[in-house]
Amino acid sequence: MKDSFFRSMTWLHTWVGLLVCWLLYLIFFAGTLSFFRDEITLWNQPAIHNVQAQTQRIEAQKQQIITGFDYLANHGANSSSWRITLPDPRIPYLVYGYAKPKEPGQRRSQFKNTQLNPNTMQELEPFVDTKGGNFFYRLHFDLHYMDAITARWVICFASFFMLIAIISGVVIHKRIFKDMFSFRRNKGSRTWLDAHNLSSVLALPFHLMITYTGMITLIFMLFPYPAQTAYDNGMRDFFNDVTPRNTMTDKAQGESSMVPIQSILDQVYTKWPHADITRVQVNKPNMAASTITVLVSAGKTLRDQAPRLIFSGATGQMVAKTDDELTSSKALYESLNSMHTGRLATWLLRWLYVLGGIAGCVMIGSGCIMWAKRIRERTKNNVKPSFGLKLVEGLNLATIMGLPLATCAFFIANRLLSPTTAERADKEILAFFLTWLAVALLALIKRDTLQWRVMAAINAVACLSVPVINALTTNGNLVSYLMHKQWALFTFDALFLLFSILFFIQTEKLRTAKNNSKIISPSQSITSKGKNHD
């Protein structure tokens, strides 16, 4: 019975992991990058590279908001919506924006944004059209080209499989603590098993947390039935009930002058004396039904939804606000959401999130390679590999080598595309997917050690090209970033340089493998110098 249970858990662990491992690798890869999505967006916008963070940022917010209201009153008096986005430690610039009239067939109004240097209040150079880090953030749960709801169902099922794989992996680990310190080199598939175990066990709490909380973020899509039962209009009424909303002025008719924003801010600072305001939104300005919403940073509290106050723009009266004290269920939900996104993480904790994400990629990638290598080792030399084995080998190469190259293509496109290119942001994303598709097609044709070596060399050159092209097309480079203490930009370029070196090392190790080897995995390069384990 014991052996039967162990074998059942081993079978379950193997197959629930293998069936969705490439999708999980994409989720972990894009999700890991998302922890620094603001820094990625910063790099993608050369216009803000020299904007310094304000030393008295919170103290300057009140005047920035007052100035913003004067600007928007002059430039967007007939707009349906205004928005003031204030600088924060990771996004150093100030934005005044107003909604432009809708075009025929347009679902939402486009915003006319003016970006300012908060230190000088001078308008910045025009921004380039780019999604920046938000592309990777949306990719890891929306899969970009898929319908959003369909994609999120796919992600939920993959996450469920991941959770089963983690739990079954713990069950079948007979030496879970010993595996934390075991890594045997030059042992073929055993080396890959050790890499899989090591990356799994060391970051096990992170893997469990990020997988479970990822499913919690979509819990209302998975289980809408309680809300549908309790409310007449289902989820719509449920969200209206738990989200601050205007119920006092929304039916007011006609025009009305706006109250001075000073009176609104006085009320905000009376309630929250040390408020760190992140955004001010005005809906229907200069109308009797207008509202002014002030959002503040949640600080270090485990809240995913920013605390907010909503005022009538015509009278200045507060009409709604977030709850000062959350119910136990809402506090649990918001804390789990904020744990998953890492929005409240300090820079040190954010790096720990990234290391956990890298460990997740290693865990998934090593598991994929280990399965293919074991099957290949069991296949006799005169026996033709099965279609399933060839497919797994191809997907391994396409995913593990294709995603880094596609990411390089995304950033290179950001620097080389003209700022006037139509739909420029979509062109950057297209460069990502076309590069990945090209690698996938090559991987399905040829998957041997030589192909891994070629792709490693291409990745090495591509990673090196990112900081080089950046230096040639902008006024900054690795040295200037270091000298001016622009740590986000310096770290970005330095990481690409580091990965370029790692890919060059992998290329050199793969060079020692026999060219006629049909084994897919780069384990030959890492675990054996010249020795063929086939």
What does this protein look like?
The chain is α+β, with helices and mostly antiparallel strands. Helix content is 57%, strand content 8%. An eight-stranded antiparallel β-sheet has the order 4-3-2-1-5-6-7-8, with helices on one face. β5 (277-283) and β6 (291-296) form a beta hairpin. α5 packs antiparallel against α7 (204-216), α7 packs across α12 and α16 (449-473) runs antiparallel to α18.
Outline the secondary-structure elements.
Elements (H helix, E strand, L loop, with lengths): L1 H33 L2 H8 L16 H15 L5 E5 L8 E6 L11 E7 L4 E2 L9 H10 L5 H25 L16 H14 L1 H13 L2 H4 L2 H6 L4 H8 L18 H11 L5 E7 L7 E6 L11 E5 L5 E4 L6 H14 L5 H32 L8 H30 L7 H22 L3 H25 L4 H6 L3 H25 L11 H5 L7
Q: Termini separation (Å)?
A: 35 Å
Strand order of the largest sheet: 4-3-2-1-5-6-7-8
Overall mean pLDDT: 88
Counting DSSP H or I runs of 4 or more residues, the number of helices is 19
| Strand segment tally | 8
Largest sheet: 8 strands, antiparallel
Low-confidence stretches: 514-534
Rg computed from alpha carbons, rounded to a whole number of angstroms: 26 Å
- Morphology call: globular
Order of helices and strands: HHHEEEEHHHHHHHHEEEEHHHHHHHH
Determine the strand fraction and express it as a percent band. Answer: 5-15%
Classification by helices and strands: alpha+beta
The proportion of residues forming helix, as a percent range, comes to 55-70%
